[in-house]
């Protein structure tokens, strides 16, 4: 997690040296009144990293993926239920019609052919003043990258 701010970070916490079986990491920071928490929890013991396409706009070929994992109606409804708690998809809120993906399969040149999906979401509370949000595709072009590109948000002071 990177925090870029004109204000100093007034709090930072990172879990380190956890036994491998926990497979979870948490990093938190505060900048002014904004608290940021980044969780990596592949063992499923906390919510986060949903890997859900919110809408057909977020899928290269929606018909081919209809009702399959990442794009199913139950997954999308579960995400809608979370958003109904007072959260919003930062990227889609600011870019309602833009097609941008955050994940491309390594097979069949997914990145090169831009055959991907937007499954990496940044959810924020309704009262957070968003300045911008995006997906940084540059790291995806590095040698031995993740198949995901980082999603980011910029918050107004």
TrEMBL record:
This is Putative exodeoxyribonuclease III. Its cofactor is Mn(2+); Mg(2+). GO terms for molecular function: DNA binding; double-stranded DNA 3'-5' DNA exonuclease activity; endonuclease activity; metal ion binding. Belongs to the DNA repair enzymes AP/ExoA family. The record marks 120 as: Important for catalytic activity. The keyword Manganese applies. Pfam families: Exo_endo_phos. Its EC number is 3.1.11.2.
